Each structure stands twice: as C-alpha cells, then as structure tokens.
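Notes from hallway chat w/ T.B., transcribed later so I don't forget. T.B. wanted the structure written out for a chain they're using in a teaching module, and asked if we could keep both sequence and structure tokens in one place. Agreed to drop them here.
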Amino acid sequence: MRFPTNPRLDRLHPYPFERLRQLTAGITPNPALPAISLGIGEPRHPAPALIGEAIQASMASLAAYPATAGTPALREAIAAWLHRRYGLTVDAGTQVLPVNGSREALFAIAQTVVDPSRAGATVVCPNPFYQIYEGAALLAGAEVAFANADPTRNFAVDWRQIDDATWARTQLLYVCSPGNPSGAVMPLAEWQALFELSDRYGFVIASDECYSEIYFRDEAPLGGLEAAAKLGRSDFKNLIAFTSLSKRSNVPGLRSGFVAGDAALLKKFLLYRTYHGSAMSPIVQAASVAAWGDEAHVVDNRARYRQKFAQVTPLLAQVLDVALPDAGFYLWAAVPWGDDVAFAQGLLAQYNLTVLPGSLLARDAHGVNPGAGRIRLALVADEAECLEAAHRIVSFTKAL
C-alpha cells in the first residue's frame, strides 16, 4: 500500500528553473567560453560589512528561543524604516511582523487567509508571476485566476481581465510592484481601483515589494501601504505588504524580511506562524536591525545596478526589443522571433549563456501566454560579466 500524501501536491507545476533544466538537458554548452548565467535572480553584489559585524556581536543570543513576533528592537527598526522610506506611521507592536524572507511569508499568507470550504475559493495572480503565488494558492485549496501583463502599457497588469464573478469568489490577490519580471511599478490610480474591489468583495491584498529599493528613476517606487495612506486608508484594511533584505542588502542567504499592514490580519498571521515554527533566529534579527537602520549600503547597491543597466540596456537594444525598467534587476526582452525557449537553447549551446525563457514564468490565460517570445535577464553579476553576457547575446542575435 502506498503511503498517503496531500493530493494537492500533485497540482503543483515544476519550478521554472527545473523546467529549464529539462529543456536544456541534452545541450552541450560551447566549452570554449566560460559559463555565464543570467537565469536566476540571486543578488551577487557584496553584502554590507555591518551585517557580519552584527552577527558576530550577537552569537550569545543563540542560547534562547526566539519569539515568533520578533524582538521589539527589530519591529521598531522596521517601523522606523517604513517611516523614512514611505512617510508611514505604523504601530510596531501590531502592524509589523518579521518573517524569514518574503518567499516563505508569501506562501504562508495563503494558508492563513484562504477558506477552501467556500465554493470556488479563488486567488488572483498577475501573469507572468512569481511561482510561489500559484503554489501557495493550490496548496491552500484555492483555484488560481490570472490577469495578464499588457506590453502596450509598460507591462502593467490588466486587472480588467478578471470579471465580477471571479472577483466575487476571490479571497486573496497577489500584487507585485515593482514587478517580476518586467519591473513595472503600479501607480496610485491602479492601487485605488484594487482597494475599491477589495472593499466590494472582501478579499485580502498581498503586496510583494521585494524589488522596491532597486530603481532607475529619480522618484522611488510607490508602495502599497504608502498608496493606502495617500488615499486615507491608514488602517491598511485587508492589505499586507511584504519585503525583504535579500535584494535591498544583497543577503538572500540571511532569509530576513517583514510584513506590515492590517493589524487584524497580522494577528491571525502571527497565530499561524506560531504553530508553523516560523521564529526568526536571534542572530538574524540582530543583523536585520543593523541592515534596516542603514541606507548608505542601499544607495551604493542601487548605484551599482544603475551603472550596469546604463551600459547593458543600450547594447542589447541594438538587437532586442528591450528598455530600461522602472525598477528591479531584470531586463524583460523580446526575442527576434517568437520562440523564447529555442532562443535560450541556442544561446546556451553556442555561447554558454543561460537566460530564462519568459513562457516558463507565465501560464496560458485569456488565450495567450504573456511571457512567450520574451526572455528574463537577471543582471545580478558584476559589471564585467554582465557586459560580456550582453556582447554574447548581440553576437548570437546578429548571427541569426
């Protein structure tokens, strides 16, 4: 007899990087060129020294179990950052909660707010999307509805594709701004429209903002809580924002972030997390206090990305349909012909360069896969490696 498992696990799709491995399994990359990968969005700039110093200074804290709610010092450091960054005043005790990176929290929020006993329980996602959204929804027992990005509007999500009947079944909406993969930032009017839909139908908005500190315009991207405050929604009703130190401070291995917003929702989320075993390590909390309290390393990090993008983007624009994004560390480029998978396979075989086909980041919805015909380029390596990758793409494309 086979052992029992959760049948919802069978509904999960392979992760994009696993699908890419399968699609390139039979390819032998050109051995004459060193391997370069622009496939995974893993920050590779140096981490600030202050984080390591804080870890070393807090080793004695490992002698005690941490509280799931985090230390007052960490919650206050996060609240202070929200005030400096967005001009927000939040209650550090009830409207802020540290999490072990935004990824685990984005998954866990669906398990907290979705009620699968309600007929047609639905989670709405942008498309393309971060696959955690879909997996979280399916494992929570919900169906997934997708709203496609519109390339004619700088890849803004067309929420009008979700009809009233679907909104009425919706319990959770995932928003990503700045977006992955396009880097598009949602304007205030779009936030207002989503808040009005949330008020009408009662769903929760989970705002994924982990790319908020890497941007290329003079004005920093608008955040979800900031938008709510500007619209007089200071209680952040049905809204939780998620962010992380991974991209901001180049410490993806630290697994540190926070959620902030609706106090009633965070109370339930804390209850779930207490049972789930989600307390943050004391040394990670100490390091996080140091990181959230310092902006100098963030300014330096942003300058590094701006310099890279300023050189790489016009180079690639010679051969690909690509433009500087609003924010984030990806370029979302259209390939010269429609087959993004074949383009990625050829690039790997001939130039030993890995990129992520856009169709792997999206689902067929409303008659189209909105990622098809595009590739995502993660400019996370140093400037020299990113420029070398760009030159290889130019050479490959011109040879076509």
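Follow-up for T.B.: The mean pLDDT is 96. Might be a good example for the class.
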